[in-house]
Amino acid sequence: MVFQVRSLGLQGVSGYEVSAECDLSSGLPAFTLVGLPDAAVNEARERVRSAIKNCGYKFPVSRITLNLAPAGTKKTGTLYDLPILLGILALVIGVTIISGATDAPNAIASAVSTRCLTPGAALALAAVFNFVGLVGMTYISTAVAHTMFNMVDFSGNTHQALLALIAAMIGSIGWGVFCWFWGIPASKSHSLIAGVTGGAIAMNGLAGVVVSEWMLVIYGMLFSLLAGFALGWINTRIIEFFFAHANRSRANKICVVLQDVCACALSFLHGAQDGQKFMSIGLLGIALAFDMQTSGATEFPLWLMILCSLAISLGTLVGGKRIIKSVAMDMVKLEKYQGVAASMTTVITLFIASITGMPVSTSHCSTAAIMGVGASKNPERVKWDVAKSMVAAWLLTFPCCGFIGWALAQIFMLF
Question: pTM to 2 decimals?
Answer without folding.
Answer: 0.72
